[in-house]
Amino acid sequence: MEIKSDLADISDTLLRPGLVECRALDKDRPMRDSKTFGLIARGGLVCYALVHLLVAWLAAQVALGDQAKADKAGALQMVVAEGGAWLLWLIAAGLAVLALWQLSEAITGHRHVKARRRVVRRTVSGIEVVLYGLVSYSAVKIAVAGADDGQGSLVAEILAESYGQVLVTVAGIGVVVVAVFLAQRGIRKTFVRELDFGGASGPARTTTIRLGQIGWIALAAAYGTVGVLTVIAAVTFDPAKASGLDAALKTLAAQPYGGPMLLALAAGIAAFGAFALLDARFRKI
């Protein structure tokens, strides 16, 4: 009887490869099981939310006539101006952890889903590596130098090269493609797959999803404008038109009915910031 029982156990194990795979995955991801890492990652998401709430506030100021810089670097510079250099280092560290986490997910993560969907999930993680990484880099740069991000001068340097016009055009088109991806993320609510609403109330779940939809679409509109302006800068050889979100917001403000449009965009970015706070609570880490 004992022999039969042992054989049954072995057979059951062989017939359930998913169980073996899950155990192997658990061993492959010790960092994800770390409570300390989870707390830092959630703290990074809170920092990410704070940056977007500041950007929304600055965008609203531009819409109301204040020409203060209103991109992410401008929001971080405002933190420095208020004596919060230490907060910038905290933001940079938290977002760096988020970027590293998403990098691991982009390379080896999401193995529990089907192959086709796994490619999509890893692509999403790759985009988040860039988003988190850029804000982290900006925070470090401003904390160290306290200077502008220099995006405009970088575009000018690239355009000065023989291959510069093509490279900047491709970069601008790439940003537009990312913007389209972010928009469908909000429209199709695919971000919900990354959230765990276990124990959450119905209103909390609904609020999180609605803020996510509005926020991702607003973010897509902002990035889309940046991408279009970058392409225009390449075509016209005018790097001043590709100075980031700051120029995009001011361009919108200069259009007919630009003030109301920019206020609506600021509200959308604020919605994304609020969503990011809830994301820090419900994200699967």
Q: Characterize the overall form.
A: globular
Task: Give the class from helix and strand content and strand pairing.
Answer: mainly alpha
* DSSP strand content: under 5%
For the largest beta-sheet, the strand count, sense and barrel status come to: none
SS field, number of helical segments: 11
State the main characteristics.
285 residues; mainly alpha; globular; transmembrane helix; DUF1206; transmembrane; membrane; DUF1206 domain-containing protein
Short description:
The chain crosses the membrane at residues 39-64, 84-103, 124-143, 163-183, 214-237, 257-278. By secondary structure, this protein is mainly α.
Account of the 3D structure:
With 285 residues, the chain is an all-alpha fold. It has one domain (31-282). 78% of the residues lie in helices and 0% in strands. It has 11 helices and no strands. It has helices at 2-14, 17-28, 35-63, 72-81, 85-108, 115-145, 151-159, 164-187, 202-236, 245-253, 258-282. Helix 3 crosses helix 4 (72-81), helix 5 packs antiparallel against helix 6 and helix 7 (151-159) packs across helix 8 (164-187). It holds the Pfam family DUF1206. The chain crosses the membrane at residues 39-64, 84-103, 124-143, 163-183, 214-237, 257-278. This is DUF1206 domain-containing protein. Keywords: Membrane, Transmembrane, Transmembrane helix.
